[in-house]
Write a structure and sequence with these properties.
Order of helices and strands: HHEEHHHHHHHHHHHHHHHHEHEHEEE
Radius of gyration: 25 Å
Low-confidence stretches: 487-493
Number of helices: 20
Number of strands: 7
Largest sheet: 5 strands, mixed
Shape: globular
Mean pLDDT: 89
Distance between the termini: 62 Å
Number of domains: 2
Strand order of the largest sheet: 4-3-5-7-6
Length: about 500
């Protein structure tokens, strides 16, 4: 193993695992996914994901399987359910380095691309959180890098069996993480590249199109096995919810409950911060290399990776900045390649006099200082900023209060619980509270006993006959603990 490789590995481990468990679940995604994983662990049903007892079929269950397995192995802690994302990020970084070396790029440049990937703000934050997007990114990265390697070897009339198997493995990871999107994200890049390749060569080679199609079918086998098992449990309705409602419906806007609907230019407005702190290098690199793409298939591939996926995401109705995560490996490569161009320009100025010559002579030191500053900033954020956010974003005060009331003999229920509190309550209490969906159920539950209490979330405070016993805030969301007893009756609790 060359020297840059172990250094990159150690830095990536530091960035992704340092202080990973020093803060509680924050935000809707972490609370929801962790709650579903905990419920999977509790009811031992590894086929049908459930949130608060109701099937939750927005995505295939790969991330949930890994999170539930981590809970079973290491306990129900925030650290345990973040491990899958962190390891996915680490594997992606090292995979990018290894494949760039196979593409003939220098070790230093490959390591810089990997480090730029690890330090892109959106990427770093998502691989340190609970969710499926880091696994999706890993699957897409593996599939596309393996495809390009297989295509290169195929063009050179060399065997590419291992590369094609790796491609199928990437498709399996991507589709088991996010369903149809896991197929579309690598698919649109492969289509764009093969089309460009055919137009440049003015030759259509059927086998170049056939092999990725056949190996895609192989990669879909794990997803198909899960879908078959799901069909046995939930029938066509369950399949339709996974494959149509939560996939095609999110793309064309027919699934309105999904939310996140933004205009087509949404991602254009996000470009200034999409790949921070390396975004300028990415965009300048795209522009700088534009005239060499016909001759340089390597740069063509990574440019199309970025542009084709960006176009696909702009066409989708449901938009979130986290969806840009699958573009970050390509962005990192373009940033590193253009950074290498700038580095060589500084090297040429080094023998002269003046400011830029001085910078050129000290270019290595300036580069190390810059990377140390960026990495140090992320570590400071992990150590202090994330725990400080718990003061406003943590669900623990609410769930601790629920468990305290249960310990004193009260029975708790959630009223019209959103995904955040539903997931957080299951994860932290490791149990399912009673689920109340309408006002009649709420009043009936509270009338059964003075020991019954309900937790309500809402912008407006509950009105009589409901009596508010306590109000707790999570971000801007208020959660009210209510019953039908006089407010003074629970002062002793």
């Amino acid at each position: 193993m060359s020297r840059p490789a172990p250094l990159l590995f150690l830095l990536a481990c530091l960035l992704f695992f340092f202080a990973l468990g020093n803060h509680q679940l924050q935000g809707s995604t972490e609370a929801r996914v962790a709650g579903i994983a905990m419920e999977m662990h509790l009811d031992d049903d590894w086929v049908t994901p459930r949130l608060f007892g109701t099937p939750f079929l927005e995505k295939p269950p790969l991330s949930l399987w890994l999170d539930a397995g981590a809970i079973r192995a290491f306990g129900g802690t925030p650290l345990a359910v973040r491990l899958a994302s962190a390891f996915a990020g680490l594997f992606s970084v090292m995979l990018l380095y290894a494949m760039l070396r196979r593409f003939g790029r220098p070790a230093a440049l490959a390591a810089m691309a990997g480090l730029m990937l690890a330090t892109m703000a959106s990427y770093w934050s998502n691989v340190r959180g609970v969710g499926e997007d880091a696994l999706l990114s890993l699957g897409v990265t593996l599939a596309l890098l393996a495809f390009f390697q297989a295509h290169r070897r195929q063009a050179a009339q060399q065997p590419a069996r291992l590369s094609w198997l790796a491609f199928a493995g990437g498709i399996a990871i991507a589709t088991l993480s996010k369903g149809v999107l896991g197929l579309a994200m690598p698919g649109v890049v492969i289509f764009a590249y093969l089309l460009a390749d055919s137009l440049i060569d003015k030759r259509f080679t059927f086998s170049h199109w056939l092999r990725p199609g056949l190996l895609t079918l192989l990669g879909l086998v794990p997803l198909m096995i899960w879908l078959y098992m799901l069909y046995q449990r939930g029938g066509l309705q369950a399949l339709g919810e996974v494959l149509w409602t939560n996939s095609v419906g999110r793309f064309d806007g027919s699934f309105e409950e999904a939310g996140h609907y933004e205009p087509f230019y949404y991602y254009l407005a996000k470009l200034p911060q999409a790949f921070l702190p390396w975004n300028i290098l990415v965009y300048l690199g795209l522009w700088h290399f534009r005239k060499t793409l016909v001759q340089n298939r390597y740069l063509l591939f990574f440019s199309l990776w970025l542009l084709a996926q960006f176009a696909l995401l702009c066409l989708a109705s449901s938009k979130r900045t986290v969806y840009l995560m699958s573009l970050t490996p390509a962005a990192a490569v373009l940033a590193a390649e253009y950074g290498a161009v700038l580095y060589q320009r500084l090297a040429k100025r080094a023998p002269g006099t003046g400011f830029w010559s001085t910078v050129g002579r000290q270019r290595r030191g300036w580069l190390i200082a810059l990377m140390a500053l960026v990495i140090g900033g992320y570590l400071v954020n992990a150590q202090w900023a994330a725990p400080r956010a718990d003061r406003e974003l943590s669900f623990v005060p609410v769930t601790d209060r629920i468990m305290a009331l249960q310990g004193s003999g009260h029975q708790l229920a959630l009223y019209q619980a959103n995904e955040r509190i539903a997931g957080a309550s299951v994860f932290y209490t490791q149990s399912l509270l009673k689920d109340l969906q309408n006002e009649a159920q709420l009043l009936a539950f509270l009338r059964e006993s003075p020991q019954h209490m309900a937790v309500l979330g809402g912008a407006e405070a509950p009105k009589p006959p409901l009596q508010i016993q306590q109000t707790l805030m999570v971000g801007r969301q208020a959660y009210y603990f209510v019953n039908l007893a006089p407010a003074l009756s629970l002062i002793h609790i």
